What does this fold into?
Amino acid sequence: MTAPIHSIWLMPAVPDETLLAGIVSDLSGRFGTPLFTPHLTIAGDTDRPVTALAAAIAQAAKEVAASSDTVTGIETSEMFFRSFYARFAVSAPLAALKQKLDPQAGEPFMPHVSLLYGPVAAGPKAQAAAEIASRLTGRTIRFDRLCVVTSGQHFPIEQWRVVETANLG
It folds into this structure.
């Protein structure tokens, strides 16, 4: 049996989480794509033990305060988990969290909150992206907690679960 895979997510504060979850739900219903909890991945697909990850987010949460970041735009791609997303700049708080919790990251950090997973026809996706961009671009999203989540690229989305939470600052 393989070790469980976990990720560390930065979570929007409840009012922003509710807004983003509504968009995810709308897009999922419109395009027949999976439902998921909106989040900003700080570290993905790690087999480190939950106890180590929980300790890491607890320590980071003591050192990094809740922060607000502005949506710089809505972008789309052909990647399953980045099909449609809200993009953020690499702010000092986001960079600090990334460095503390994923110092060995192999890819450049691209902070984003996915709003749709999976393949969608280009035309309707572009139309939906323009609609959501008018609602979200320039909007500030507050992030106030870190979570350890049982999740991964090869783990069914409907089975993803938060297993530990730490409130920032």
The chain is about 35% helix and 30% strand. The beta strands are 6-12, 40-46, 67-76, 84-88, 112-116, 140-150, 161-167. The mean pLDDT is 95. The first helix runs from residue 14 to 31.
